[in-house]
Design a protein that fits this description.
about 15% strand; about 260 residues; 8-stranded parallel sheet; alpha/beta
Length: about 260
Amino acid sequence: MLIIGERINATRKRVGQATVEKDAQLIKEEAKKQVEAGADFLDVNGGIPGRETEYLPWLVKVVQEEVDVPLCLDSADPEALKLALPLCNKRAMINSITDEPEKKQALMPLIKEYKTRVVALCMSASGPPCTAEDRISTAVRLVEFLTGEGVPEDDIHVDSCILPLSVDAAHCSGMLQAVGELAQRFPNVHRSCGLSNVSHGLPLRKLINEVFLGMLISRGLDTAILDPTDPHLMSVVKAAEALAGRDEFCAEYLTAFRAGKLV
């Protein structure tokens, strides 16, 4: 399971304030905590309106002064990415490309030049998906477009687009169906999600997130953008991977248990 730490996001009040004030220490602490908790990548989002070209490169520099993991640049702004990608010490991921013609054409040269991994978000020009069929058809178009442009399947992480359960319960069943279908259709393409969207507007959000993550892993999810500093959530990852048959002899589960990481 590839874990992408979500916490360095300038749309979060605390991180946004630290970014505006250039409080490097707070950003470094967030980076270090996530890597120590098990993040494989760190998502970096400098999306303060009108300032992303300034803040995204700054965040990349600060994070890399503290940790040595690859970064997932959470931006659809080609200008901000042009400034940030050359600063990345390791091969980066771009989060995300969508099935919108102008955005695809704007991001594709950067994906090719820097040979990035890419999150392919199942969003089209008509908006977010409503059904499993919407998600699958958009994913197929994105995968075919990216592979046609020379992107290896192993570098593609399809995000079938989690929408809030509080808005429509069908969003979750559609997401589950899409992840399972895509795992069968494109076994060499990864399945991803931005987990916390599912619980927006509901109480006990962590409970919703944990249960849904386990369900998604059972369908074939192998990448997730989440909060790795939540020990309950990370315990769900280990248990669900074992139950899904993706942890031979429960080795990873047992290693985490012996290290005192399961709660």
